[in-house]
Each structure stands twice: as structure tokens, then as C-alpha cells.
């Protein structure tokens, strides 16, 4: 009887202790931030200045996903940001955005029209945007009705024989276009694959110093599963990394996209000289660069989702969707 009574008291005491510990840790997180994120932040990390728009992000509004990298870059998920606040901010700042897209060979007829039409509905609506369409067939670019302040420029490029080269030459071409046209007119550049369709807001919250996208296939995977280039003869070779980024969407200020694309191009050219090609061509080089030069903002897979992955509760919005691949027709 005595023993039973003592056990009961001990049990009550134990429960009380748990409640107190839980409460203290909650208070700690509230006032000092998440202990894990906190201790992993390198001491020399450059924090955002006090008036930065990204300070309006609510990293705690989503507890089901990772909303911040260990180096302090936000990972953008639905619910974390106020779209109106971002749009107002960028309208006041006079922000103008360049969107580069390549439509070469059969990709033009297959994808460009839907890409542009859907971008008019969802990409940076309300901001001035110029589409830079790189193509080998300027006369075949479809006429698409554009909103006010939005324009389209066609840039003729040479068509490469190998599809791998079509994909890789984009880095050099984007860097050149930034030099010759973009840097005089736009603060930001986004570089996108054409084989995708916008389906919901892809707005000004995505703008940042340097922006990279989590690949829909790998956003829950660990570093060992990432399909980095592992060939030591390639300049893109990497043992480990932070994330697997998808080259179908990247961006940032023109200055940082210029550095990014030039560096990837240098890697690609060095590899060519050494007669090696990285596993996923330009994407492998981009991943290497972003491991060495951490992006200031990371986009969740909402910003480029593939329905092939299936339903995921954490991906609440599909802002951009992979279009169907017709590899049998297109890669011949
Ligand atoms: C054609 C065959 C194989 C691979 C690429 C091409 C190809 C790509 C092309 O013939 N024309 C072209 O404009 N591209 C551009 O490169 C498109 O903007 C395309 O979205 C981008 C990357 O190629 P994708 O989309 O086939 O690559 P994945 O990684 O999405 O499969
Ligand atoms: Mn693609």
C-alpha cells in the first residue's frame, strides 16, 4: 500500500517535470530561436540587414517542413510569406525581372506557347517582366498577349547537334545576355526550362540575391542519394553537398546570376578540354557552384513540382509543373 502510494507520487512528480521542461524549451525557442538551427549557424554568417523584406517571413508558420538552411537562407513554402507585402515592396522598389528561356528545335512548338501564356497568369504578376526567348527559329515564336509593362525579346542562337550541348550552352548564353542586355534594365534574372507550365502564383517572394530550387525528386533525400557528379575527372565532382538543386529554375540579381553562369560555363569548358562530361551536364555544375557559393534563398519544390512524385501533404501549392516529356520524339 505504502509502496503504491509512493509510486503514484513519483509518477505525478515525473509528469510535472516533463511539463515544466516542455514549457521551458518552448519559451527558449520563442525567444532565442530553434537551438539546432542556431548552433549550426557559422559565427561569421552575414545576417540580413534589419529592413530586409525577408525578415517578414514567418519561419514558424510551417512546422512540417524545413524552412531555413543552416547558413540562414529561408526555404520558401506556402504560408510563410505575405504575398501582398512582397508585391508592394517590389513595386515600390521599382523591381524589374528578366526571365530567360530556351526554345530550340522541337521544344519551341512543343512547349513555348503554354509556358508564356501561363507565365502571364502567374509569374511575377504586377511587376515589369521581360521574357528573353533564345531560339534558333525566331520567326516561329508564337504571338502571346502580354500584360502592361511586360515585354518579350527574341535572341537568335545557334543550334547544337548534341542535346547535351543544347542544355550546357545555356550557361554561356545567359552570361552573355546579362552583359549585353539584361544588366541595364533589370535587377533580377530567373532562368527557366521551357518544358513547364505555371499553375499558381510564382511571385516576388521568390526574388533574392541568389536563388536555387529543391529538386522535387530529392527534397526529402539524404546527401548519399543525391545524383551529384562523382567522377573525379570532372570539375563538377562532389562527394557531398547541402541539397540537390534542380537546374530547371535558378535566379538572383543579375550580378550573382552572371557569376553563377560564368562559373558553370568555365567548368563545362574545362571538362570539354579534358573530354569528360558531368553526369547531369549543366545541373551537375550548378550543384557544385551552389555548394561552394550558398544561395541566399531556396525555393521549395512547390516552385517546380512533378506530378510523377505523387501526392505530398507538405506540397500545398503547385506553382510550376513539369510538362509531359516526349523523350522518344525530342531526344532523337
Ligand atoms: C532536346 C533533347 C534532349 C535534351 C534537351 C533538348 C532541348 C532542350 C532542345 O532540343 N531544345 C531546347 O530548347 N532545350 C532547352 O533546354 C529547353 O529550354 C529545355 O527545357 C532545356 C533543358 O532540357 P530538358 O528540359 O529536356 O531537360 P530535363 O532535365 O528537364 O529533362
Ligand atoms: Mn526540363
Architecture blueprint of SSEs:
Blueprint: H1 2-32, H2 35-40, E1 75-76, H3 83-93, E2 97-102, H4 106-122, E3 129-135, E4 150-156, H5 163-180, E5 188-192, E6 196-198, E7 210-214, E8 245-253, H6 254-273, H7 281-292, E9 297-299, E10 320-322, H8 327-330
Parallel strand pairs: 1-9, 2-3, 2-5, 3-4, 7-9
Antiparallel strand pairs: 5-8, 6-10, 7-8
Bound molecules: 5-phenyluridine 5'-(trihydrogen diphosphate) and manganese (II) ion.
The site of manganese (II) ion has 3 residues, from loops.
Short overview:
By secondary structure, the chain is of the alpha/beta class.
Structure description:
It is built from eight helices and ten strands. With 332 residues, the chain is an alpha/beta fold. The chain folds into two domains: 32 residues; 278 residues, Spore Coat Polysaccharide Biosynthesis Protein SpsA, Chain A, CATH 3.90.550. The strands form two sheets. An eight-stranded mixed beta sheet has the order 1-9-7-8-5-2-3-4, sandwiched between helices. A two-stranded antiparallel ribbon has the order 6-10. α5 runs antiparallel to α6 and α6 crosses α7. The N and C termini lie far apart (84 Å). About 4% of the residues have low confidence. The protein binds 5-phenyluridine 5'-(trihydrogen diphosphate) and manganese (II) ion (MN). 5-phenyluridine 5'-(trihydrogen diphosphate) binds next to α5.
